[in-house]
Amino acid sequence: MGHVIGFKCIECAREHRVGEVEYVCSACGGNLDVLYDYERISQRLSKATLAADHNLTIWRYRALLPMEDSSRVPPLTVGWTPIYDCPRLAAEFGIKQLLIKDDGRNPTASFKDRPSALAVVKAMEAGARITTTASSGNAGCALAGMCASVGMESVIFVPVTSPPAKIAQLQIFGAKVVLVEGSYDDAYDLCLAAGQHYGWYQRSTGYNPFMTEGKKTAALEIAEQLDWDVPDKVLVGVGDGCIIGGQWKGFSDLRQLGWIERIPQLVGVQAEGSSAIVDAVNSDGKVREGEARTIADSICVGKPRDATKAIRAIRESGGCGVKVSDDEIVAAIARLAQATGVFVEPAAAASFAGLLKMCENGAIKSDERVLLLLTGNGLKDIDAARRAVKEPLRVRPDLAELSKLL
């Protein structure tokens, strides 16, 4: 892992050598950035080598990931999810171009397969037998699936309020599921304590610095799939803050390599009942923790663990924070599906709801290209989707009765 030169604390700016820390800053407990030798990376990786690479997964970027050259990787196909152009919606909203990246196409149907795949790689490098994480559902499902693919055990902590489909998915993968009678934040704290006590490898977002690196692969793909002409704005649903922080890191890496000229403006979208990061961005930058309530379980976080990275991503890219209501999120699920054919869960629909609000407020210019990062498939939370539609027609097998209803 010679291309990794160390780590830097996002809170106190202290730098650490490789091997000096395991997860967080030893001085203040802050989250870490992975530091790279970009000159060394550029000797191994270029636009030309990528163009010739037929491995259409996140591992095509392994030279930009904190892993050993000899590392085994999970066999599941993670990444290189499609980007769709939506010209009808762009015309409706009066903007130059609207793109959507559908990460619900990953193996366990969410964006979280990206960091979880890297977590399993790092766990194998560390010789771990058991890997654990706290999750509202998707991160746990992703880790459980990746662990199953390599024969590793997983212990997943989720709040009892997690959607039944996600709990079932965890069990199907053979994970040891711990339902915590409390919030996601309660599950997170218990997971950290258990991981330290039993010596399990810890995947949890905002604690393991490599999770940002796994999540940045979406930004690398966006740039490459768009022939290195990045959008003007990228909208992301935000919970702990690690996904949007990862997008900033990925685009920053590419700018350091000289492959893109600018970082897109990153827009963080949160539910009104779980808006600690957006509130901080729109005020003094200080995160105020509190109880979180929203239908979008994947971004229902009262104590965001990667808030500093998220705030940096939004502010340094010239982006902004947007809040949307649960009603707006639910309506966005159906509207997006009916306009594009892409069915997403509430947390992913939040980015589309945020776009609608920004268009209403004139916050997007007519000459701008916008991309929505859609992070999870709608089948993850059927109950939420059913709230967005009317009850279906119901008839006896009689044509005359059907004609009356139609």
Characterise the protein shown here.
The chain is of the alpha/beta class and 406 residues long. The protein has a domain at 83-106 and 211-386: Rossmann fold (3-Layer(aba) Sandwich). Helix content is 39%, strand content 16%. Strands 4-5-13-10-11-12 form a six-stranded mixed beta sheet, sandwiched between helices. A four-stranded parallel beta sheet has the order 8-7-6-9, with helices on both faces. A three-stranded antiparallel beta sheet has the order 2-1-3. Helix 10 links the parallel strand 10 and strand 11. Helix 4 (113-125) packs across helix 5, helix 9 (217-225) packs across helix 10 (242-257) and helix 10 (242-257) crosses helix 12 (307-316). The protein is globular. The mean pLDDT is 96.
Strand order of the largest sheet: 4-5-13-10-11-12
Strand content: 15-25%
Overall pLDDT confidence: 96
State the separation between the terminal residues, measured CA to CA: 64 Å
Could you give the order of the helices and strands?
Answer: EEEHHEHEHEHEHEHEHHEHEHHEHHEHH
- Tell me what the CATH architecture of the domain at 83-106 and 211-386 is: 3-Layer(aba) Sandwich
For the biggest sheet, the summary is: 6 strands, mixed
What integer value in Å does the Rg equal? Answer: 21 Å
Secondary structure: number of strands: 13
The CATH topology of the domain at 83-106 and 211-386 is: Rossmann fold
Could you give a quick summary of the protein structure above?
The chain is of the alpha/beta class and 406 residues long.
